[in-house]
Design goal:
Strands 1-2-4-3-5-6-7-8 form an eight-stranded mixed sheet, sandwiched between helices. Helix 1 (about 1-15) runs antiparallel to helix 2, helix 4 (about 95-110) crosses helix 5 (about 130-135) and helix 8 packs across helix 10. The protein is built from 13 helices and eight strands. Helix 2 (about 65-75) links the parallel strand 3 (about 45-50) and strand 4 (about 75-80). By secondary structure, the chain is α/β, with parallel strands linked by helices. The protein folds into two domains: about 1-155 and about 270-350, Alpha/Beta hydrolase fold, catalytic domain (Rossmann fold, 3-Layer(aba) Sandwich); about 175-260.
């Protein structure tokens, strides 16, 4: 059964997988909270995943995240992916932890969650921060089988500086469309009138909606004209700040560095990490253009010594999608790495509850 599960995962998540997997999908509500629930269309449920989305305005409704959750479900897992309002507002703020803890409670009480296995948590990108907080939570961490951190960040400031560097000399290969998210998370640090910043912030949100998830928009001849078109609707002060925050005019690095000088943005989970109480598995793409793969090394350094940790880096995936590897020797090596990763993904949600 495990072999069939892994073959299905490879078919959907490997470099040649492009079919949207067939799975049951339903949106559920618990008061103000919403989540997407996925399950296999047939066969016995093998395990359960609680999926923590990253910083994205669509949350689990993003096409790439939806496809991933459907792949897990088709392989035999019950999947619960919550909408996190803070992250969908593109804000890296501590209240996302409370949102994630509350959503995990909804997941835990869901009648379709298999009770014979310990659930696993899967995080993507900045979802690593609330995901690690779950693993360190005194009432939740001991219940988990595995925490899987994919393309995750440990240090917010380092990740934001990586995003800025896409617009510096030598920044090729990094995603230039993430700069507005940096500016959005440095609220009140630019030395401009609040009204000016508010107008720029509203425009950045619209710009993100028109560019993220569209690889062709990473080209300068695509995103700069769009930013200029949108900026034309703003007054001078807001226009200048908006264009700077899109990387469409001027050098954003000096202003961002001054803003970062006021203290780290977002929140830190460092104080919680000694309480992590489950196995941690880390995956990261070597060509990740959003969060540097060195963050995976950092994760291994900051976890407490007693935690079982394994790290896997691959050239077959970047931050959100499969990537191509052409050389035969490299392809064989990457295939082995991918198979190991998928085996860990499978094993992580199958750990039996002790009797």
């Amino acid at each position: 059964m495990a072999l069939l599960t892994r073959l299905k995962l490879m078919a959907h998540l490997g470099p040649v997988g492009d079919r949207v997997p067939a799975a049951f999908c339903q949106t559920v509500r618990h008061g103000p909270r919403r989540a997407r629930v996925y399950a296999p269309l047939s066969g016995r449920v093998q395990g359960a995943y609680f999926v923590v989305p990253g910083l994205h305005y669509l949350g689990p409704a993003d096409e790439r995240m939806d496809r991933f959750c459907r792949a897990l479900a088709d392989a035999g897992f019950f999947v619960y992916a919550p909408h996190l309002a803070t992250y969908e507002a593109l804000a890296i703020e501590a209240q996302v932890i409370d949102e994630t803890v509350a959503a995990f409670g909804d997941f835990w009480r869901h009648p379709s969650r298999p009770l014979s296995v310990r659930p696993a948590v899967f995080t993507i990108s900045f979802g690593s921060l609330p995901g690690l907080a779950l693993a360190a939570h005194p009432d939740i961490g001991p219940r988990l089988g595995t925490l899987v951190v994919f393309g995750g960040a440990v240090d917010v400031g380092r990740a934001l500086r990586f995003a800025i560097s896409a617009h510096a000399p030598g920044g090729e290969g990094k995603d230039p469309l993430n700069l507005p998210a940096v500016f959005l998370n440095l609220r009140g640090r630019f030395g401009v009138a609040p009204g000016v910043e508010d107008r720029a912030r509203a425009a950045w949100h619209q710009y993100v909606r028109r560019t993220w998830g569209r690889p062709e928009m990473k080209a300068k001849d695509r995103y700069i004209p769009l930013a200029e078109e949108m900026g034309a609707a703003l007054d001078d002060g807001a226009r200048d700040l908006f264009l700077l925050g899109c990387g469409a005019a001027g050098d954003p690095q000096p202003m961002v560095e001054r803003a970062l000088g006021h203290g780290p943005p977002g929140f830190s989970i460092a104080a919680r990490l000694p309480q992590v109480a489950c196995e941690v598995v880390g995956f990261h793409g070597l060509d990740d253009d959003v969060i540097p793969h060195e963050e995976l090394d950092r994760l291994g350094q900051v976890l407490p010594p007693g935690v079982t940790f394994s790290a896997h880096k691959t050239g077959w995936v970047d931050h959100t999608r499969s990537a191509a590897v052409s050389a035969t020797a490299a392809a064989v090596r990457e295939a082995r790495t991918m198979w190991t990763m998928l085996a860990r993904l499978d094993d992580g949600a199958r750990k039996k509850v002790p009797r």
